[in-house]
Amino acid sequence: MNQSLDVTSYILRRYLAFSIDAIVFSMIFIPIFMCYLLVPTLNSISHKDYWAATINYFTLGEYGLIIKITNFIIQLFVERVNSAPLFWSKFTQLIMQIIKDELTLLLANLTFPTVFIFSRAWSESSTKQASVGKRIMGLKVASQSTGGQIPFVNSLIRNTVAFFFGSISILFAFFTKRRQSFSDILVGAVVIESIKEESLKPIGE
Questions:
Q1: How many CA atoms, within 13 angstroms, populate the side-chain half-sphere of residue 127?
Q2: Distance between CA atoms of 131 and 141, rounded to whole angstroms?
Q3: Comparing C-alpha atoms, which of 18, 11, 15 is closest to residue 117?
């Protein structure tokens, strides 16, 4: 019973370490990205085009596509677009704007996990052997065979698998001798208490 509680506590600490890393990274990444997204809004404000600024701001959300199309229809009536060439010109501008915005959001969705994974891989393969979250939780990543640092490539593979298959990967910790997740086993790593400099035995073992 005690062993089960120890394993659960150990896994919970690993989850909390990951969550802390995600929160810290989001606090840094999201404001920077939002500043980039707000450039069109600020540009419209500088030109005193407040309607365009409003549209640019609200099209950052999940209903951005609906707002863009609604604004396009409104503009057709406001500007009295009554010729096919002018209509197709406006329509082409709309499509190009949608493509640009969707690509920007896609880039953000790809950039966030990529930079997050690389930053964790770097920190956990450094001399500290731990990300910010792991340091706070008193954990570090060590080589299963030596107890020292793991190579950056190994750490990168480990964090990539952990990011996309974390919930499944961590289940292995319930059944492995050193409480290793699948991502740990894959690269020959083990997560141990940082205060145990020479021990490869994780919590509860």
A1: 0
A2: 9
A3: 18
**Could you tell me the pTM of the whole model?**
0.69
pLDDT tens digits, 27-86: 888 777 777 667 777 777 777 777 777 766 666 655 567 777 787 888 888 778 778 888
Token pair belonging to 131:
């990300």
Q: Kindly report the backbone phi and psi dihedral angles of residue 181, in degrees, each rounded to the nearest multiple of 5, phi listed first.
A: -80, 170
Burial of 126 (0-12, 13-18, 19+ CB in 10 A): middle
Return the amino acid letter for 50. Y
